[in-house]
């Protein structure tokens, strides 16, 4: 790979690249389409999988086809009127309510963290280093994921060199890239220390426990207490979270990695955060993205006005 190809490849995120590659393979191999494609063939492809695939999946397939044609210098068939009309018809005939992850409620967050702390203390008394490490890791991951509204891939890509935590003060985290950072400028995030359910202390406890000084923050721990070299895979966050919730006595069937993000958004909403403050803190660029994470409440006004704006530091007031 030459330098030009390396930079071109870096412009597309790994997850997007894998998804697009799978979509193109599906079009060519599974359906038997040919590239470059015509607008009529793309329309027939959509019709063939209407109802079988979700609207979001079909949108991803169209994006992949558009990207392939643009990168190869061909006209984009997905922009043709026939394709747009077919897609509109699919929306009309196959309406589907978007599935949402169950938001993690504050009382359940407290319950699972309490259970993990208890397990860590018992394991320490028994000399079970592996269990202590897993509990400390899971507590730090869950609390950081909740209070920062992180996506699972962002948690898994955190590097110790990019984190500065001060006991009783706060934590600063730098993300070289994220889904909302389209220009790869990097994002610096901050979260204060809390009186309870503190993500800062949980992070410090985990780092002290594992003895790491560089590399990925969250890693696999084997049965002997040995750490993996690579960071956790984003797909491992859901089973890890669900296992901890189930063992803490919380049914976890509807929870996903987005439950942490939705949980924080709903907590902030019910605590009186205005929409502008919430979007700025979590990193949402448009209102539609933010509103997908918030459950309507008949008890709390949420009109996006500047009145009652809560800054980051005021999280402390809710957790004294």
Number of domains: 2
Percent of residues in beta strands: 5-15%
CATH class bucket of the largest domain = Mainly Alpha
Largest sheet strand order: 1-2-3
The total of helices stands at 14
Number of strands: 5
Cα-to-Cα separation, first versus last residue = 55 Å
Percent in helix: 40-55%
Q: What is the CA-based Rg, rounded?
A: 22 Å
What do we call the CATH topology of the largest domain? hpI Integrase, Chain A
Write a brief structural summary.
The protein is mainly alpha-helical and 320 residues long. It contains 14 helices and five strands. It has helices at 3-10, 14-30, 39-49, 55-71, 81-93, 106-126, 129-148, 152-156, 199-210, 237-247, 258-270, 275-282, 287-291, 315-318; strands at residues 163-166, 170-175, 187-192, 219-221, 227-231.
Keywords:
320 residues; mainly alpha; hpI Integrase, Chain A; 2 domains; three-stranded antiparallel β-sheet; two-stranded antiparallel ribbon; 14 helices; 5 strands
Task: Report on this structure.
The chain is mainly α. It folds into 2 domains: 3-93, Tyrosine recombinase, N-terminal domain (DNA polymerase, domain 1); 106-318, hpI Integrase, Chain A (Orthogonal Bundle), CATH 1.10.443. Helices cover 52% and strands 8% of the residues. The chain contains 14 helices and 5 strands. A 3-stranded antiparallel beta sheet has the order 1-2-3, covered by helices on one side. Strands 4-5 form a two-stranded antiparallel sheet. The N and C termini lie far apart (55 Å).
